[in-house]
Amino acid sequence: MKNQILEEAKQELVNGHSKKRHAFRYFVLATNENGKPRQRTVVLRKTLADLSLVIYTDKRTQKVKDIQDNAEFSALFYDSKKLLQIRVEGKAELITDKEQIATYWHTVQAESRKDYTTSIAPGTPIKNPDEVGYKAEENYFCPVKLIPNTIEYLRLKRPNHIRVLFTRMDTDWSGEFLVP
Ligand SMILES: Cc1cc2nc3c(=O)[nH]c(=O)nc-3n(C[C@H](O)[C@H](O)[C@H](O)COP(=O)(O)O)c2cc1C
């Protein structure tokens, strides 16, 4: 049964990026900002074969600084129709390989590319939203890989809720049921 649940969790995480309007397309990513949790919504861009999750961001954002100081992350996915919650925890890695960056950059739609090109850094105070300018030649695109160490599955249902903690053992996963 635990294997089946792991397969279900994997499938949901793959569907999150491959199926339009899937509940897992957007998730909450928490990083550690000088000992304080900091959360934000991000888009799931890709789920890799080892269940690493890829997100895209601007390299000047706070989350990138947080990850450089402390790679630990917690990611929360929730499907309100299925009453399914998946919490993924592990270490985040900024992707720096030029070829990989180029491959991911090609997946960004033309109209979205400007999101990674603001002339002043995201989070900088401004007087008016119209003040934001965009660079034509340069971008700050930064794909980030979230490498999971644990995946916790919780599904609320009758008669019994199901909660399982999966822990990565090299390339395999070992699961144990928890009291929901
Ligand atoms: C629906 C939605 C999707 C978002 N997707 C992303 C994303 O994929 N990557 C990203 O860097 N920020 C995304 N954001 C913005 C972040 O939530 C956040 O405001 C921004 O990245 C700055 O976060 P930070 O200062 O904590 O790094 C999204 C926001 C919303 C509301």
What does this structure look like?
Helix content is 19%, strand content 40%. The protein has a single domain, classed as Pnp Oxidase, Chain A, CATH 2.30.110.10. The two termini are 16 Å apart. 19% of the residues are buried. It has helices spanning 2-18, 62-69, 98-106, and strands at residues 26-33, 36-43, 46-47, 53-58, 72-79, 84-94, 141-155, 162-169, 172-177. The protein is elongated, with a radius of gyration of 18 Å. It is an alpha+beta fold and 180 residues long. The longest helix has 17 residues, at 2-18. Strands 1, 2, 3, 4, 5, 6, 7, 8 and 9 form a nine-stranded antiparallel beta sheet that branches. The chain contains three helices and nine strands; from the N terminus they run αββββαββαβββ. Bound molecules: flavin mononucleotide. Flavin mononucleotide is lined by residues 26, 38, 40-43, 55-57, 61-63, 122-123. The site of flavin mononucleotide has 14 residues, from strand 2, strand 4 and helix 2.
Q: What is the topological layout?
A:
Layout lengths: L1 H17 L7 E8 L2 E8 L2 E2 L5 E6 L3 H8 L2 E8 L4 E11 L3 H9 L34 E15 L6 E8 L2 E6 L3
This protein binds flavin mononucleotide.
